Amino acid sequence: MSTVSLASNTSVLQGFSSPFTSSTNPSGASLTRRGRLARTLFVASLTVVLVAGFAAQSGAGDEVVATTSYISVVVPGGETLWSVASAYASGDVQAMVEAIREANNLKGYDVQAGQKLRIPTQG
Predict the structure, then answer these.
(1) Nearest 10 degrees: CA dihedral of 65, 71, 74, 76?
(2) Are 120 and 100 in contact (CB under 8 A)?
(3) Angle, to 10 degrees, between the axis of helix 81-88 and the axis of helix 93-104?
(4) For the domain 69-121, what is the CATH code?
(5) Fewer CB atoms < 10 Å away: N or C end of the chain?
């Protein structure tokens, strides 16, 4: 006669349930209704804090930049970027030169006769 012994299931389940155990909680501890509510509120508040932190990092809430309108101009013969900018500037000509360069992706300060330029307008 041979005897068969069944080993008891005393191993750690590490988060997996076993058909041999009646508990589905691997730690063996059960939370009361109050404990589950506290855990849920803690996780929810932590989520809100993290989302607010990421929103602050991404620049949400920065000031709104007004859209710029443009007019198109064909450069007359003998004109320079400075003379075109001074014709449309309402103040600082150097700032207008830089705005025209940025609007038209110009590498330098040279313009050609007949070249189309976008001129940013105020307002």
Answers:
(1) -90
(2) yes
(3) 110
(4) 3.10.350.10
(5) N
